[in-house]
Amino acid sequence: MTDMIPFIDLGAQRDRLRSKLDAAIAGVLDSGAFILGPQVRELEARLADFAGAPIGLACANGTDAIVLPLLAMGIGKGDAVFVPSFTFASSAEVIPWTRATPVFVDVDPVTYNMDPESLKAAIDMVKAEGKLRSAAVIAVDLFGQMADYPAIKAICDEHGMKLISDAAQGYGATLNGKHSIEWADALTISFYPAKPLGCYGDGGAVLVKDQHIADLIKSYRVHGEGKERYEYARIGLNSRLDTLQAAILLVKLDAFAEELVLRQKAADAYEKGLKGAVKTPQLAPGATCTWAQYTVEVDDRDAFRSYLSARGVPTAVYYPIPLHMQTPYAPFPVAPGGLPVTMKVCDRVVSLPMHADIRGEDQQRVIEAVQAYAAERAAA
């Protein structure tokens, strides 16, 4: 059997950064400050500075990073929060936690991000029904490319809605040189190990502009604490980032800008090598991408994946069943006319190996396998 190349090679990055990682971890062990230590505060400041945000706040994971601003914004029962269906569960599951109602909208066929026209239609539907208040939008930067924030922000402003950027996959991406916090009220980050900026466990962060919102998030993430220890101003949750993870992330953040360049080079090589064989991803004008995944479209996904697997090339599918088609989410509203683009792409997308260290022989194996598959299909 042909050996599989790595889909995401965390080991190669670890080996590059090993000495710095070992020193950072040892420093935390020596300090004994394991929860919200000084490395956490440094990480918060650096994450905010990297994205041009006034305030950064670390938390336990990327899911909490989305619910914390919802709580701080007062989103709750009777509120509608608009979110794509073509995304990971965390983008939507946090909405019912607040007793608000998710309303699912369609995505753009090129970027796979929230379609502003579908969003408009969904808002009009909710307003016409009169049962819910249009309160917030959670736009997802799927596969590492930013959503159309200028258009979405204009819609939010028109209707007095808050805007959250779920940048779990897209922290580091820009549009016309600006990060999504330029338009969003909050930018949320996941440090799950497979993310472009990942730790060695769970971790997350929120970037915000408003000091009052930041103060509320600080309270909510530590059990709703008040001004004094063991004084509780509200019902909160336990969402503190371990200092060990912050120390690891600081080392990785030092290399992050360079790794984004390497990911773009890998994406460029794929675009050149795969053109004409599959539908390759396209960026919006003025956009950069973190390439959290390199996702193509094919006609027969099962056959494609089987063919590549036999040649030692792993693939992954994000996300085969849209959220609005899953049992827990089926009762929630969907934009008028359904979600036709979502239903189409969920059967066609497949992601190829992508990480900052993929190059040379491994990437060429991927390209040759895809090209061979396309040639055999064309000849059949």
UniProtKB/TrEMBL annotation:
Q: Which Pfam families match?
A: DegT_DnrJ_EryC1
- A molecular function (GO) term: transaminase activity
State the superkingdom. Answer: Bacteria
Q: Per the record's keyword annotation, is Transferase included, yes or no?
A: yes
Which segments does the entry list as coiled coil? none
Task: Indicate the transmembrane segments per the record.
Answer: none
**UniProt xrefs under CDD domains:** AHBA_syn
Member of which family? Answer: Belongs to the DegT/DnrJ/EryC1 family.
Please identify the protein, giving its name as recorded.
DegT/DnrJ/EryC1/StrS family aminotransferase
